[in-house]
């Protein structure tokens, strides 16, 4: 019986799960799970046969494939998580810079309600993203930061346009 191969496949699947491959490499993780299930099903089917008629070749092959795919899923998930953590850190730094600039130049001005609301909403989203990032919920942090960036950049552009229009009319 391919006990060692099945154990290795199970460990690879668990390692991929711990690396959150179901989030960062869902298709490969799904394939790994299917291969592991196929190995277990094949092993069970062979165990039901008479001992001299058993052939664990399929179960062994599925287990080996599951081990390889699990390692690949873990590697991809780890790299993606690292990249997202790095990118969210960069975006937070960029948005903090935009925030300081906005507060220094535009905030004292009589801005429209929509510009102020969008700016405040972007600050709220930044806080949520920061908290999600600290909790390790990187996909949520990334989504929140995309929205925050959109609102912050839009607010800055609208405030800049308003200020430009004022000086042009002056």
Structure description:
With 170 residues, this protein is mainly alpha-helical. It is 86% helix and 0% strand. It is rod-shaped and about 95 Å long.
Topology:
Layout: H1 3-18, H2 21-24, H3 26-47, H4 57-105, H5 113-135, H6 138-169
Helix pairs in contact: 1-3, 1-4, 3-4, 4-5, 4-6, 5-6
Structure at a glance:
By secondary structure, the chain is an all-alpha fold.
The fraction of residues in strands falls at under 5%
The helix-strand sequence is HHHHHH
Say how many strands there are: 0
Provide the gyration radius in Å.
Answer: 26 Å
Gap between N and C termini: 87 Å
Mean pLDDT: 94
Low-confidence sequence ranges: none
Main beta sheet: none
If helices are DSSP runs of H or I spanning 4 or more residues, what is the number of helices?
6
Shape: rod-shaped
- Helix and strand content put the structural class at mainly alpha
- Helix-residue proportion: over 70%
